[in-house]
Specification:
92 residues, alpha+beta, Alpha-Beta Plaits, 3 helices, UPF0237 protein D5R95_05925, UPF0237/GcvR_regulator, ACT_dom, ACT-like_dom_sf
């Protein structure tokens, strides 16, 4: 069974509204934040979230597309990876 948890990263030039816009998309898809870390270094914004979907009929592809669209609109890079894929890619 595939995990219903995701690692979401957001990186780009800091500006007003990044957190609000990204979390709005998450709320629209019923994706809940489990843990969050945010840092601004100089003018570079970074945010990493560990999140989970609440709905059984969650459409990961649609969520990724909407998050990518929102990232492009904001001028930041947004990546959404399933927890299993993330762990597999980053294992030592």
């Amino acid at each position: 069974m595939t995990s219903n948890r995701y690692v979401i990263t957001v990186i780009g030039t800091d500006k007003v509204g990044i957190v609000a816009s990204i979390t709005k998309v998450m709320a629209d898809f019923n994706v809940n934040i489990i843990d969050i870390s945010q840092t601004i270094m100089e003018d570079i914004f970074t945010m990493t979230m560990f999140a989970e979907n609440i709905n059984d009929d969650f459409d990961l592809l649609a969520f990724q597309k909407k998050m990518n669209y929102e990232g492009e609109r904001l001028g930041v890079e947004v990546k959404v990876q399933n927890e299993d894929v993330f762990k597999y890619m980053h294992r030592i």
